[in-house]
From TrEMBL:
InterPro entries reported for this sequence: Integral_membrane_TerC, Integral_membrane_YjbE
Subcellular location: Membrane
Organism: Trinickia violacea
Transmembrane feature ranges: 12-35, 47-67, 141-162, 169-189, 204-224
Protein name as catalogued: TerC family protein
Record bears the keyword Plastid: no
């Protein structure tokens, strides 16, 4: 263990931590959005377990990151999945969760965090793997794990802060969902399958895809949320009407 720390490339560790700080903002938003409907006493557990699962999965992704990013249509499929996650986080199906036990809600939040982080990390892991290249080949995997462990408190703290802000400023839910849509648009436009169309490889096309993804998530999420509210109001009015009849 002492030999490992003595020969550790601390410059690479610092780079990995900085990358995680810079790229951890979107992860904190996802974790906060997924945990915002949990009971107060389960929020911390959701943040901790969700972060732990996301970090473990990211370590696995880094092991074969270059191969992953070269697979055609993988980023495209990941972008579509992230669009769906963004819509569901903005407009959760309240009626579906009414009869779900608290433990099941916690598990559902953790699953959402892990899946979203896996999709969003497709690009991020390349930066981390690149930072580890400067180290001894025998230390690279351990170096990545060490750097990610150092970044965990920052992600947890960021998620907790965003959760507190969500309670005070609900508009952040819309902003967070738009962020996921923005990232999804970037994944879709940058998929290797689109390399055959030079038109897609332009700054205008990339920004357009980012904006389209953000707008899609916000508009669809808002429409689904409005529909859920109307259904709830209709159900409440029909229930009060039937009780009044009796």
């Amino acid at each position: 263990m002492l030999e490992f720390f003595a020969t550790l490339h601390w410059g690479a560790v610092l780079q990995i931590v900085i990358i995680d700080i810079l790229l951890g903002g979107d992860n904190a938003v996802v974790i906060a959005l997924a945990c915002r409907n949990l009971p107060q006493e389960q929020r911390v557990r959701g943040v901790l377990w969700g972060t732990a699962g996301a970090i473990l999965l990211r370590v696995a992704l880094i092991s074969f990151a270059v191969v992953l990013l070269d697979v055609p249509l993988l980023k495209f499929a990941g972008g579509l999945l992230l669009l769906w996650i963004g819509v569901r986080l903005m407009a959760p199906a309240h009626d579906v969760h009414e009869n779900i036990k608290p433990a099941d809600k916690l598990l559902s939040a953790i699953k959402t965090i892990v899946v979203a982080d896996a999709v969003m990390s497709l690009d991020n892991v390349i930066a981390i793997a690149g930072a580890a290249e400067a180290a001894d080949p025998q230390h690279r995997v351990a170096l990545v794990i060490f750097g990610l462990i150092l970044s965990i408190p920052l992600i947890v703290w960021g998620s907790t802060l965003v959760l507190k802000l969500l309670d005070r400023f609900p508009i952040i839910v819309t902003i967070g969902a738009a962020l996921l849509g923005w990232i999804a648009g970037g994944l879709i436009i940058n998929d290797p399958a689109g390399d055959r169309w030079p038109l897609l490889d332009t700054p205008a096309a990339e920004y357009g895809a980012h904006i389209a993804g953000a707008v899609f998530v916000v508009v669809v999420g808002y429409c689904l949320k409005r529909r859920a509210v109307r259904r709830a109001d209709a159900s409440a009015s029909s229930g009060s009407g039937s009780s009044g009849a009796h």
